[in-house]
Amino acid sequence: xxxxxxxxxxxxxxxxxxxxxxxxxxxxxxxxxxxxxxxxxxxxxxxxxxxxxxxxxxxxxxxxxxxxxxxxxxxxxxxxxxxxxxxxxxxxxxxxxxxxxxxxxxxxxxxxxxxxxxxxxx
Length: 122
Known about the structure:
Blueprint: E1 4-7, E2 10-13, E3 18-24, E4 30-36, E5 43-49, E6 54-57, E7 65-70, E8 75-80, E9 89-96, E10 111-112, E11 116-121
Parallel strand pairs: 2-11
Antiparallel strand pairs: 1-3, 3-8, 4-5, 4-9, 5-6, 7-8, 9-10, 9-11
């Protein structure tokens, strides 16, 4: 069983930064950060392949967000910079144990955290 607990959300003005953390009971081969804004579908924004450290980003956050992992601290991070009002959403940490799923598709991930709210004001 994989347990994920997010923290670090909050309110920030446009142009500011936040770092989200996800405490992980055990890393899986692929982990990601998703977000869901009111009335919208959950979307993947950043993915990391744990063993190689390879990272992938949705175009909407490329160059502004960085996903990383600390194996010693059992923590997954999402560093968010130059935040925009459209980044406002509940952010979720996700873990995949089944191979072959699409990087940014929620169905590929079978463990989820409870989410943390990020609000960016203009």
